[in-house]
Amino acid sequence: MIRIIKTIKEMHQIINNHKDRQHTIGFIPTMGALHEGHLKMMSMSAAENDITVISVFVNPLQFGPDEDLASYPRDIEGDMSKASSVGVDYIFFPSEAEMYPSEPIIEVKAGRLATVLEGAERPGHFDGVVTVVNKLFNIVRPHKAYFGKKDAQQLAIIEKMVEDFNHPIEIIGVDIVREADGLAKSSRNIYLTQDERAEAAHLYQSLSLAQSLYDHGERNSETIIKAMRTYIEEHTSGHVETVAIYSYPELVEQYEISGDIFISLAVKFSKARLIDNIIINK
């Protein structure tokens, strides 16, 4: 039966017990409001490890002053039911005071990888991500940790952080889970109006257009980006904030495509800012 753990001390005790018994531990950090994308990662972990732990913690350090921290969806009862259905053993559900009993003095910085794309749009966001993930890794000490490719920039940063900080953890990138019409599953999709929800399917269609252009030999980034922007503007009422092509996982902007790439977009609707991407391997 699934258990909710609210303190670091109790989580440490449980993890020590499982480590003593040579159990393998899978971990999925989340901010709750679980959807099928989260559940796919949890199912993978339950299949690959003896024990699966998730965290549900809305991390204030990764929200900017004008972002949706206060209104971010929270539903721990629903999250518990969903996590239980896919074999999760423990939910680490700490309070903000438990995670940050005082203002952090030692800072963790995400560095160059956080200066582009979402990092440029949301200064400090990825510093908050690497801070909380470092803490969670030290609390849970998993063998494997699972992250969705929908946040591909975050995945690249976490992989580099694990390498640079010598965390003995295998990072598993999990493919994006989509609705039937292609929209990437996201906790923020609930903020879309009915009309916006219908329009939002075109975000993935714009990425499919980019894939088609690439498959037919187009290697000029500006040509692909212009085609995507035009498509989104013609088919949605959203404001196109970002369409970009970067190398992956190095996150260096591409002008003439030559290797593995990451095509990403960010579109702002009335109350929801949606991101999506595809990764194309050479």
Automatic annotation (TrEMBL):
ATP binds at residues 31-38, 148-151, 177, 185-188. Beta-alanine binds at Q62. GO terms for biological process: pantothenate biosynthetic process. One of its GO terms (molecular function) is ATP binding. Its EC number is 6.3.2.1. It is found in: Cytoplasm. Belongs to the pantothenate synthetase family. Catalyzes the condensation of pantoate with beta-alanine in an ATP-dependent reaction via a pantoyl-adenylate intermediate. The reaction proceeds by a bi uni uni bi ping pong mechanism. Homodimer. This is Pantothenate synthetase. It comes from Staphylococcus caeli.
